[in-house]
Structures are given as structure tokens and as C-alpha cells.
Amino acid sequence: MSGGPLVCVVGSLNEDTTLRVPGLPRPGETVLATDSFRAPGGKGANQAAAAAVLGRARGASVAMVGAVGDDDAGERSVAALAVCGVGVAGVRRLDAVATGTAVVVVDDAGENHIVVDPGANGALAAGEVERAVGDLRPAVVLAQLEVTPACIEAAARAVPEACVILNPAPMPADPAFVLELLDRVDVLVPNQAELGRLAGRPTPQTPAEVADCAAALAFTGDLVVTMGAHGTYVVPRDGAASHVAAWPVDVVDTSGAGDVFAGCLAVALACGADLVDAVTEANRAAGRSTELAGARVPADFTG
After folding, report:
1. Closest-CA residue to 126 (of 97, 168, 155)
2. Which domain holds residue 127?
3. Is 0.70 surpassed by the pTM of this model?
4. What does the DSSP 8-state code read for residue 29?
5. DSSP state letter for 82
6. Which residues belong to the active site?
7. CATH number at residue 268
């Protein structure tokens, strides 16, 4: 690793099977795929890969804390992160459980449905997370919700001086534990639907509705709400809210765009960018990632 700032990503590692279809299936409908491929994935690993690839030019380092099974899929997942420049010493290999898996269905418009079997991600121990993050002493800790709540809480408390970024996805049916965790979070990065769930309101559709949800949430850190093609709504803890426009792109596949956004945001903040500049960088990288197929950016992606 370089001597620059360190981002530690705590989260999931999966092996993804992606199916291309003309249109997403309706309930009870069978759709024939036009193409398929297998690739390493997991929200945590995708964010770590994006952070490492995009942070290379800044001299930032990225480390992954998570778990895989003692199987071929786990070996492929860890090796793929290492190729991107991610430190993988904090990834546990577990004997009694398989590596997590995901099935990603993507239509011709680039929209997707994703189903995840957590596997080893659900068996990661909170104590191991706290020790691994504590030993790394990162500038930024980035977490999602594909590992257990106890692991996320352990990551958030491991290094008190670190900036903790939480991407609350996938949002659970009961978001109570996420709300309880917010006191330990410095930057919260939900999408519109996730913000609505946290605020106890319908999914906001306009900037005004996003602002109402943000006020109802009463979060005291920095709030960054991703709105897809409508850009990003930013509510700093100590300043006026603003809107950052989306990057214009020709969309091929939206899967993983949110992970690219989170990884880029984490690196930019670790390297000293202010919040709006970091969001602007992340918007550009996430937008450009949708011009590529697959949920993870390649090692030569420049954002």
C-alpha cells in the first residue's frame, strides 16, 4: 500500500451471475436471457475495487475487511480485489460456509433486478471486524448493509477519529438498527428509496420531497442522496443544501453505479476534497461506469 490516506471498506464479497434480458420479468413471467457472464461482486468488494482504481492517481490506499468461503469462488473474489490494488489481509476465509452469491438481471435499458445469497458475509464476526479495522487505522471507513448489523457497528466504533461513511443498502424491512447507528455515522449516502424508508415516508421524487425527508430524518452528519439520472442532493451538516447534476452518459448497465459513487466519494473525502467537490467527482465516475457492462469497474477504469 502507498503512504497516502487509507480507506477501509467493511462489507460483502460475492460472486455474481449477470443475465442480460430484453425486459425485466413481471411476477410469474419467464424471460429468456440473451447473454450471461460470471464475475466477482458484492457491494463491499465493488466499492473497494472502485475506490482502489480511482484512488490510484491520488496515492490513496484501500483495504477490504470481509469474509469468503474456503472455495473457488472465494479465491476468485479475493484475487480480483488484489488485481485492483485492494489490500486483502482483512478478508477471512471461512470453512463452514460458501462464498456469497448474487444473480443480477439487466434489461436492454440498463435497469436491473438483483437477488443475493449472503453466504460467508453473514458469518463474519463483529470482533474480527473491530480488530481488523483497528489495526488498519484508516482515515475513512466505508460500510454497507450486506454484512450483519453487529459488524457494521463494530466497524463504526473501531477507530473513533475515522470518517465513517454508511451506504444503507440493501435497506432492511425494519430500518430501526440503521437509525440507531446514525450517531456513529459522519456521511450517510442513501438513494431516494432508502432515504424515504429511513424517514418513514414514501420515496421522495423531487428535490423538495428529498429535502422534507432529510429534515424529518434529523441526521446530524453530512447527507448525500443519490437520485440516479436526476443527480445528487447534498445536505452538509454545517451549510446550505445543494443539488449536483448527473453526468451525461449513454447507459448500458446501471448495476454497481451506486457502489462506484460510494467508493469514489470515500477516496475523495479521504484525500481532503470538500463534500460538494467529492460528490461531483463521484457523480462523474458513477455515470461513466454505467457505460460499461457489469457491476464492477475494470482495473483500468479512470472515472
Report:
1. 155
2. 6-289
3. yes
4. -
5. H
6. 259
7. 3.40.1190.20
Exposed, middle or buried: residue 41 (CB in 10 Å: 0-12, 13-18, 19+)? Answer: buried
Task: Specify the pairing of strand 222-226 against strand 232-235.
Answer: antiparallel
Q: Hey, what amino acid is at 95?
A: D
Query: 279 lies in a domain?
Result: yes
**Best CA proximity match to 192, nearest among 232, 222, 240, 237:** 232
Torsion angle defined by CA atoms of residues 292, 228, 20 and 102, in that order, rounded to the nearest 10 degrees: 100
Cis ω for the linkage preceding 5 (within 30 of 0): no
What are the pLDDT tens digits along the chain (303 aa)? Answer: 556 899 999 999 999 999 999 999 999 999 999 999 899 999 999 999 999 999 998 999 999 999 999 999 999 999 999 999 999 999 999 998 999 999 989 999 888 888 989 999 999 999 999 999 999 999 999 999 999 999 999 999 999 999 999 999 999 989 999 999 999 999 999 999 999 999 999 999 988 999 999 999 989 999 999 998 889 999 999 988 999 998 898 988 887 899 999 999 999 999 999 999 999 999 999 999 999 987 788 888 988
Number of domains the chain is built from:
1
The amino acid at residue 200 is G
What contacts 218, CB < 8 A, 6 or more positions away?
none
C-alpha of 271 from chain center: 18
Q: How far apart are the first and last CA of the chain?
A: 21
- Helix residue ranges, H only, 160-206: 176-181, 192-199
CA dist 159 and 229 (Å) reads 35
